[in-house]
């Protein structure tokens, strides 16, 4: 891979977003999901603070929507590091961009840019444009594949762990609910038994008291009989 020419990062950036500014050197797309394709440069020990917060999104070159700044900078750095030596698709893109404001139609712009590009590097046909553009598409596609693998792993590691926790909590709640049902049944059984005990207490108390009364009557019958016999013994056998 050849070293990038000075300012190529800013040029590449201007191809894809409006009002491009120089991206932070070596800034990857996302630390949590950055691929191995483009390695970030070492960060300075004390970077200067920006004068105002940078917006999280920027407008794409077509002006049709907003794109994430961190991924813009990631792809720009990726393409900057992969820039081929000599004139190729990016130099043609720069020539094409310089045609803006000349009042030419789209076809004329592409043709004029091609003439300027040929003068720059002596290219005889458009093969260099197609092969270099395809190479950059391949680099972007490879980076996307690696990124999606990181996403899949992140989903498995983070979301999977949350799903496991979710299931454990649901299972625990189901077990607690069953315990509540079991405890409520025991409470209901105890209440039924308490009602039965109240009736049985009255019944058993009545039986015991009746038995006591019968005992007392019989006891007194025996005592009275013996005392009567003793009285007669004392009376008749003196």
Automatic annotation (TrEMBL):
Residues 152-193 form a coiled coil. Residues 19-60 are annotated as: Disordered. Residues 23-40 have a biased composition (Low complexity). It comes from the Bacteria. Residues 41-53 have a biased composition (Pro residues). Keywords: Coiled coil. This is Uncharacterized protein.
